[in-house]
Amino acid sequence: MDYIKIRFGNKFECLGPEFEKNVEDIFHSINPMFTLSERVWKPQMDIYETPEEIFILAEIAGVDKENLELEINSKAVRIYGKRMGMPHIKNATYRLAEIQYGKFERILFLPALIDTDNVTASYSDGFLKIRLAKLPRDKTHKIPIMD
To answer: Is 58 helix (H, G, I), strand (E, B) or coil?
Structure first.
């Protein structure tokens, strides 16, 4: 059985300005231009939850599992990696080039705190599926009062 790398940490919570879109991203979203160069792209994702769990589904077809990484803490998930480009055919005229290649990254802040000891991830048919167990909210702790 192959495993997806999962790292736990807090580094990506305080990236601040690195989350801001640069000028190229802003113009690309307004008027996508034809390009064959590599750029950072963002895979499409679905997040849904039940009272006990949060589920993330990422569409990342064509990404080898060896080029895929997942970092997680109790508040956020970072999914990143690289999709290798296909070789270009010499003397070919491209009429459409929508598939994005190169590095990708998504940082998703979660709607509830999760139990980092109870996480599973699988990758098949171009989809990364992540299951995160929520921490119980109604759990109380008795604190002894010292004299």
So the answer is: strand
The amino acid at residue 17 is P
**Buried residues in 101-132 as b, exposed as e (16+ CB within 10 A):** beebbbebebeeebeeeebebebeeeebbbeb
d(CA 105, CA 45): 11
Classify residue 59: in a domain, yes or no. yes
- pLDDT digit string (tens) for 40-71? 899 999 999 999 999 999 999 999 999 999 99
User: Hey, what are 54's tokens?
Assistant: 């949060």
In this model, does residue 96 exceed pLDDT 60?
yes
- Tell the burial category of 6 from Cβ atoms under 10 Å away from its Cβ (0-12, 13-18, 19+): middle
Q: What are phi and psi of 87, to 5 degrees?
A: -65, 140
- The total of structural domains in the chain comes to 1
Q: Considering all CA atoms of the chain, what is the largest pairwise distance in Å, rounded to the nearest integer?
A: 84
What range does the domain containing 60 cover? Answer: 1-10+39-87+97-135
pTM (predicted TM-score) = 0.68
Tell me, yes or no, whether 30 lies in a domain: no
In a domain, 77, yes or no: yes
Residue 117 lies in a domain: yes
